[in-house]
Amino acid sequence: MAEIADKIKAALLDAIEKDKLVLPTLPEVALKVREIAEDQNSSVGELVSVISNDAALTARIIRVCNSPLLRGNREINNLNMAISRLGMTYTSNLATGLAMEQMFQATSEMIDKRMRSIWQKSSEIAGICHVLAAHYTKLKPDQATLAGLILQIGALPVLKFVEDNDIQISSIILDNVIDELSPIIGCKILEKWDFPDELKNIPKEAADYSREVPKVDYADVVMVAKLQSYAGSNHPCTEMDWTQISAFNRMGLDPQIDMNEAEDLSDDMEAAMAMLNAGG
User: Fold this and answer.
1) Residues 40-78 as b or e (16 or more Cβ within 10 Å = b)
2) Number of domains in the chain
3) pLDDT, tens only, 171-203
4) Which CATH number covers residue 146?
């Protein structure tokens, strides 16, 4: 089995080296939405006309807008109201993240199951990112949410390679291959997608527990969110000494706290995770 892992790694690293690795493309709706949101002369109406062509995405954005974390005094019942409430940048980040979900699907049952479980985990981490950014930093919660959703984007080409080549491999070994290669491939994908500098290295930087930076950034938020998502489980991350991870200090967060049990945070945490999984 270890030989299979080495072969997969060698083949993928060789493809990366020769620039032949087929990287996924961002769904068209996400590309258009980002283009409009980045144009200072664009309007809410333009964003509405692009997103409204995708009924599922429209429904999700309205549902997110009415979620306990974001809802205002009155219920939102159309896309125009939702975008006006959220703002164009927030809507763009949300639409990009939600549109990515359709990429996490495969034809073989084993790979499809794995992709869906990776998306589920990414959504959970993204929800925690939203709460962390809002409570402990001056960073934008919507950008932090997107940062959480792209954390494991590099797993897609690995899983596609395994599926396309019909490789029989155990879950544990496949996990090891993904853990090793996903950060490298993830950064390449985000580079290709022309993501902002503060996000494009998230897959690598959020896995570097010894990183030191002058002030809190999105990689810190994602790293802490990822660790928090494993609190109370038997994941290997829980065996690390979190007090040695400086990201907690930069956020002013006690490494020993389980956010799910912190009274002022637990409701927000629950709401943030439900927000992304609503109707998905």
Assistant:
1) eeeebebbbebbeebeebbebbbbbbbeebbeeeeebee
2) 1
3) 888 988 999 999 999 999 999 999 999 999 999
4) 1.10.3210.10
